[in-house]
Design goal:
Two copies of one chain form a homodimer. By secondary structure, chain A is an alpha/beta fold. Chain A has twelve helices and 14 strands. At the A-B interface, strand 10, helix 7 and helix 9 of A face strand 10, helix 7 and helix 9 of B. Chains A, B: Belongs to the ROK (NagC/XylR) family.
Chain lengths: 308, 308
């Protein structure tokens, strides 16, 4: 039995996976704030599998943790997980003595990419494009995660696709994240609300010009990211996930229209059949926690998962 | 002994490589036009190694051919090599019976990427960015060429980085190739000359506004391609080659200034140290022919070279 956790900004998703890859238990709990509370969340989450989901915790052989921030490949240390109040934390070292099994830590988008790939059938190549507060992708090919040389593989959010576009928090103009990141959209929308991007879509449908511009920028940014992933890494498919994809078909319709417009203008783009290669991760998908479980169980994650 | 040929639009570069990887003979000849003349060029080129470069042609064990156009992975057939007057040609089948050794064919940019990687020390990861009539890249990591799923890996030339940019021959606006491709620049410059891009640089230095705009677009396009390759594939280095790089330090100074401007604006971009990761392939480098020789000698090129 392997366990995977997806430690998110507000909630942590925990799954237990059997030897055949099936999810046999799942719990969710609130994520604590700061290094000690995040450590406690992981320990509580694993224990809750036993108390709340009937999982035999004595049968757990490994734990994998997906967490936002920079994680050293094959390591257990996370830095700059700003949404969790964590500047630096050796999470594996903190929880291993308590849990009594090997623990591996992975960047949450990379873990989700690995999980989405497994759920997607585990063959060919795929990019997982995470549309959350920020935007980043994980690329998986033939079962291997593309890690890159210096930790920026899949950081498509900070590619500028419009020099006249909005200022990004990174300092550049027209970054994909400035156009399509949930955080940037909420900031530019500037009105209170639990789900600002949904409010933007609603207001755009009622004709609000500011909302229409934000909504069209979101589709442009996502379509640009899809084109970049296909024209650089040439993945078979691009799977969209993350908080902003809660918009579901409304988002997909906009992205499809944007891709159709470039296919209309360009025979070359048309030949790529991008609209057929983009998919949405189903709402509530356990991809991120499942991917973390797979990372945690890899005997030597450097060998088994790293490439690039 | 392995032989590699880089079949270019005007000239074909031929090298003989010994078991230790050293180039022991090199000849150049004019490339013929059309399927039969291209086939003859390859045969003549290999024979010229013996007659003109003192190579023992009886010791040749394999031949690899880099050629513009689409090449099936591990195959010998090239399609759409428009600059050579070739619509479709099974080049391996045409030359193998005459040369009497196994022949493999590879896309010229991918072959050059493989050769540049070998010349670069053969470790880590590298993108070879070819700045010729068009723009495309080849990505090599840990000795493996990233092939992708459907033949568009490294096709960064058709990523739009400016919706208000010039119309690309592909139908989109602001493609990297429309800004920085030698063909697009020559077309927009529109004045006769043997080396239009050099003329553009000269005229820009004399203050010609149209030339200054073209020159700044070239630097913007190349810098965008570098950023995209690092933020998607996260390669250690980006090596620039191809006809436009004959401009040498003049081109590099412009690209470095463009990268410095984005590093100035963005701490994140600054952290990537892009200006230290971009290099120029030396003028006259045998990278493309050497890479073709390595591809030709791979026992099973699918296994040894393909990935992605």
């Amino acid at each position: 039995m392997k366990v995977g956790l997806d430690v998110g900004g507000t909630k942590t998703d925990v799954v237990a996976v059997d030897a055949g890859g099936a999810i046999v238990g799942r719990v969710r709990l609130a994520t604590g704030w700061g290094p000690e509370a995040v450590t406690a969340t992981v320990i509580d989450g694993v224990r809750a599998l036993g108390t709340d989901a009937g999982v035999d915790v004595a049968a757990i052989r490994s734990v994998g943790i997906g967490i936002p921030g920079q994680v050293e490949p094959g390591g257990g240390r996370v830095v700059h997980a700003v949404n969790l109040g964590v500047d630096e934390l050796d999470l594996a070292a903190a929880v291993e003595p308590v849990l009594g099994v090997p623990v591996r830590v992975e960047n949450d988008v990379k873990a989700a990419a690995f999980g989405a790939y497994a759920l997607h059938g585990g063959s060919g190549s795929m990019a997982y494009l995470n549309l959350g507060t920020g935007i980043a992708a994980g690329i998986v090919s033939h079962g291997e995660l593309w890690r890159g040389a210096r930790g920026t593989a899949g950081e498509v959010g900070h590619i500028s696709v419009d020099p006249a576009g909005p200022l990004c928090r990174c300092g550049q103009h027209g970054c994909i994240e400035a156009l399509a990141g949930g955080g940037a959209i909420a900031e530019r929308w500037g009105r209170p609300g639990a789900l600002p991007v949904r409010d933007v879509f609603d207001a755009a449908e009622q004709g609000d010009p500011a909302a229409r511009e934000l909504r069209s920028g979101l589709a442009r940014g996502v379509a640009s990211a899809v084109r970049i992933l296909v024209l650089t890494a040439d993945v078979d498919s691009v799977v969209l996930g993350g908080g902003v994809t809660a918009l579901g078909d409304r988002l997909m319709a906009d992205v499809a229209a944007e891709l159709a417009a470039s296919a209309e203008a360009s025979p070359f783009m048309r030949s790529l059949r991008l609209e057929e290669r983009v998919e949405l991760l189903p709402a509530g998908s356990p991809a991120a926690a499942l991917g973390a479980a797979l990372v945690g169980a890899a005997r030597d994650s450097e060998e088994a998962l790293a490439h690039g």
